[in-house]
Design brief:
By secondary structure, the protein is of the alpha/beta class. It has helices spanning 19-36, 62-72, 82-93, 110-122, 142-150; strands at 2-4, 43-49, 52-59, 98-103, 126-133, 155-159, 170-179, 185-194. 32% of the residues lie in helices and 29% in strands. The protein is elongated, with a radius of gyration of 20 Å. The model has no long low-confidence stretch (mean pLDDT 86).
């Protein structure tokens, strides 16, 4: 299950290079990769968006991907810190599942949510972390990453200025009208990959 941290207090930057939008794009990309990849896994979503908590139980297939995309599209910053969301939702997450946390909360609040991951691990829930940061935040994440490493929690840092590759692509054919040097015109079909 993917857990997207939308806590307003830890978001940095704005627009496509802000941690909020980048986290949403990352969550959508991860869901698309897991649903469409070679393993075709069941994927779910947990996020506190605005005043609501969005929970989608893990399911396989394209219909689940579209449900996740529909849930992520109106995502709003919330007042719910990641550790609170984890604490309240631990009973919903179940055992023998994998929880992928996407968060920019790598500063002072990190020990609180990391403690919840350790508690979840004691109950059979495996976790990994994708730490989203602006380039200016990179130095601030060192302590958090070291703590995750000491606890053997898989983690990776992703800067918002690094573009993600398209997770969903399709091939399309379109018609292009070309002109000749003598003033004539002809139609050509062009095939392209769109992401």
């Amino acid at each position: 299950k993917g857990l997207l941290d939308l806590d307003e207090a830890v978001q940095q930057g704005a627009g496509a290079e802000g941690t909020l939008e980048y986290g949403v794009m990352l969550a959508a990309s991860m869901a698309a990769e897991m649903v469409s990849g070679a393993d075709r896994r069941a994927v779910g979503l947990l996020a506190a968006s605005g005043a609501a908590v969005v929970t989608l139980a893990p399911q396989p297939g394209q219909a689940q991907l579209w449900a996740i995309m529909a849930a992520l599209a109106p995502a709003q910053p919330s007042q719910t810190p990641l550790h609170d969301l984890l604490q309240r939702s631990l009973s919903l997450l179940g055992r023998r599942h994998t929880l992928m946390i996407i968060t920019p909360a790598t500063g002072e609040s990190a020990p609180l949510w990391i403690a919840e991951l350790v508690r979840a691990g004691g109950q059979g829930l495996f976790s990994s972390v994708l730490a989203v940061m602006t380039p200016e935040q990179e130095a601030e994440t060192v302590e958090c990453m070291e703590l995750l490493a000491r606890l053997d929690i898989p983690h990776q840092r992703l800067r918002t200025d690094v573009r993600l590759r398209a997770a969903l692509t399709y091939r399309r054919t379109r018609k292009v009208i070309r002109s000749t040097p003598t003033g004539g015109a002809f139609t050509v079909e062009v095939e392209e990959e769109v992401g």
